Each structure stands twice: as structure tokens, then as C-alpha cells.
Amino acid sequence: xxxxxxxxxxxxxxxxxxxxxxxxxxxxxxxxxxxxxxxxxxxxxxxxxxxxxxxxxxxxxxxxxxxxxxxxxxxxxxxxxxxxxxxxxxxxxxxxxxxxxxxxxxxxxxxxxxxxxxxx
Length: 120
Fold this sequence. Notes:
Layout: E1 2-6, H1 10-22, E2 26-30, H2 33-42, E3 47-51, H3 59-69, E4 73-78, H4 83-91, E5 96-99, H5 104-108
Parallel strand pairs: 1-2, 1-3, 3-4, 4-5
């Protein structure tokens, strides 16, 4: 399964990338919205893990924009644990919302789509 990880934190991004790669996932890690949108032009991942706290960007706006064309799994991974943020995240199109810090087992326990998203 191909996963697009959108995370600006170097330590967290690298740790998640390594951990998921060790579990057999093909992980593409980007740190900016522009790089994520470029990756979606190049390939369609089965899953996107999106950090809401990207510098200079509203993560909810990014999720909305992704949902305009991306139909694969979208999981928000955020330090924002407020129930309002979780509800908004789901309303803008996320399939799930994981609060940081999280255990890798918690993330892997979630059900992800088994087929690539339809970019139509």
C-alpha cells in the first residue's frame, strides 16, 4: 500500500515513515502542501496521513482541497485533540482523526482502503 505522509515535523515524520516502511508500506513523505499536491499528480496513494499543523497552512483547507479530487483514505493526524477539531476534520472529508502523540499500533489498527483512490 502506498501512503502519502504530509508532516512538517522532521523527527515525527521520519519516525512515522520508518515505522510504516518497516511494516511493508510504501511511504512518500512530504512537508508542504505544494509537495503533496505534486505527489498526487505523480501517483495516487491508497492513503493520505495529513498533519493539520503545517506552517502557514490551514490543515482543514488542505483536507477540503484534497477531497475535491482524491477518493482514497484520508486520516488527519494532529496534536489538536479538541472534539470540535475532530468533528470539523470529519466534516471536511477525513475518514478518521488520530490525535498526537499516538502509538503506531493504534494507527495500523485502523481500516484503510485496499484499492487506490480514484482521482476523478
